[in-house]
Amino acid sequence: QVQLTESGGGLVQPGGSLRLSCGVFGTIFSINAMGWHRQAPGKERELVAVITGGTTNYADFVRGRFSISISRDSGLNTVYLQMNSLEPEDTAVYYCYVRGYMDYWGKGIQVTVSS
Is residue 73's pLDDT more than 90? Predict the structure, then answer.
């Protein structure tokens, strides 16, 4: 059974940083994308960053502030999202996802940027 588990969220002041992690447990065949989405209150879920086919893509609102990476250790994939220069507009629930033959999603983790 596949399970994606996010960690690293929380409350941070504007201009601060957070590093989100997503552990991918279980076997996923033919992985062709790994990434992060987010959903702010009253808004639709939107792409933040994705690695696919060796290429990294970011949403326009990232503007060089975020960095996505993947590590593989003893068969465990972990997807990271380093977020710097956070703004109140980045407040949202952040979701990890992996695309294989189907899409797998984490439960989401809250990120709140506020003074």
Answer: no
